Input
Amino acid sequence: MKCEICKNKIHETFLNKLVGTYVKDAKGKKRAVCFECQKKFRNKEEMIKSL
Ligand SMILES: [Zn+2]
Output
């Protein structure tokens, strides 16, 4: 799984959970975002704008 903002690989925990989050774009599509990018943006709206 790659981050859709910075294109880096997103690590997974031993439970196969992403170290990051998912945001839904304007079309309702799930996009993966890494933890580093998650920290850079204050909210999901800002993340979606950067996709
Ligand atoms: Zn990222």
About this structure: The chain has two helices and two strands. The radius of gyration is 10 Å. Strands lie at 20-24, 30-34.
